[in-house]
Design a protein that fits this description.
- 11% of the residues lie in helices and 26% in strands.
- It is α+β, with helices and mostly antiparallel strands.
- The protein folds into three domains: 66 residues, wza like domain (wza like fold, 2-Layer Sandwich), CATH 3.30.1950; 95 residues, Outer membrane lipoprotein wza fold like, CATH 3.10.560; 70 residues, Outer membrane lipoprotein wza domain like (Outer membrane lipoprotein wza fold like).
- The longest helix is centred in the middle third of the chain and has 13 residues.
- The chain is rod-shaped, with a radius of gyration of 26 Å.
- It starts with 56 loop residues before the first strand and ends in a 5-residue tail after the last strand.
Length: 299
């Protein structure tokens, strides 16, 4: 049976390194229902400044002091070695705070005047894990405050098999996840929380831009599908979209043939773990996994 695939939503961006192992198995398909509850903390909160961490490379400029200007890598303990003042703690601090601390240390017996600018030359401390139906799954380094769309850009965009519903797994505590955690039923809610985000709601403006943070796992599942069989011109599997009706589903299958009938259409649907045959009207909604059967016309 042929599979009909919708056109993917493409991003233009940079692809980063891949990451293969995962910790837990995930559901292959997430049903995109209309009663999803979004976590306001992912979109409504004003993102704070980027906090420096280990492996970040900082460009420190001390104006009129070329010997003190250069690139400095943050060590695993969150400190960096700096001329004159030996070591300074920068881990967990914003760039502006680091500038102030450097000025204070330099003015404490080393310089009479100090003007300092600190920038991130290379990000290395904060990352998210992007898995599932993206072109380059793996680790994406956060370059400052980044949105869900920007992270998907860095993962090479979604594939043509991707669904619209993206899941974000986030640590329930202050400490970030040390590795990827895929969503599944029975996930430890004391350790992580799972939030579903519909990309269509972001594109249409119904949901503000969703931010990601260090340690998040972004999982893009396969799109849900339904099937149309019987007396249609182009039977097969089709990508399910929220709100699609039997009429629209039959149209996607090329419409009814000369021998087909729009009357007596049946839907095979799994209800309470059992497969049932349901009489359908053309205005009835289609659910993920449905099989629509169009019968032959009787003369």
């Amino acid at each position: 049976m042929a599979s009909r695939k919708r056109q993917p939503f493409y991003f233009a961006g940079v692809m980063l390194l891949t990451w293969a192992p995962v910790y837990v198995a995930a559901q292959d398909v997430v049903q995109e229902t209309s009663d999803r509850v979004y976590n306001p903390s992912l979109s409504d909160a004003v993102p704070g400044p980027y906090l420096v961490g280990p492996q970040d490379v900082l460009r420190v400029t001390v104006f009129e002091e070329p010997d003190l200007t250069g690139l400095f890598t943050v060590d695993p303990d969150g400190t960096l070695a700096f001329p004159l003042i030996d070591r300074i703690t920068v881990g967990g601090r914003a760039l502006r705070e680091i500038e102030v601390r450097l000025v204070e240390r330099l003015l404490d017996g080393y310089l009479r005047y100090a003007q300092v600018k600190v920038e991130v030359e290379q990000y290395g401390s904060q990352k998210v894990y992007v898995l599932g139906e993206v072109r380059t799954p793996g680790v994406v380094s956060l370059t400052g405050n980044m949105t869900l769309f920007e992270v998907l850009v860095k993962a090479g965009s979604t594939t043509e098999d991707a669904g619209n519903l993206v899941q974000i797994v986030r640590s329930s505590g202050a400490r970030a996840m040390s590795g990827p955690v895929l969503p599944q039923e029975g996930i430890d809610t004391d350790r992580a929380e799972v939030t579903a985000v519909d990309l269509r709601d972001i594109r249409t403006g119904q949901l503000s831009q969703v931010t990601v943070r260090n340690g998040d796992t972004v999982y893009v599942p396969k799109a849900a599908r339904f099937f149309v069989t019987g007396n249609v011109r182009d039977p097969g599997a089709f990508v399910w979209e929220r709100g699609i009706t039997v009429l629209q589903a039959v149209a996607l299958a090329g419409g009814v043939t000369e021998r087909g009938s729009t009357r007596g259409i049946k839907i095979l649907r799994v209800v309470d773990n059992s497969r049932r045959e349901i009489s359908a009207d053309m205005k009835d909604p289609v659910e993920p996994g449905d099989t629509i059967r169009v019968r032959q016309r009787y003369f």
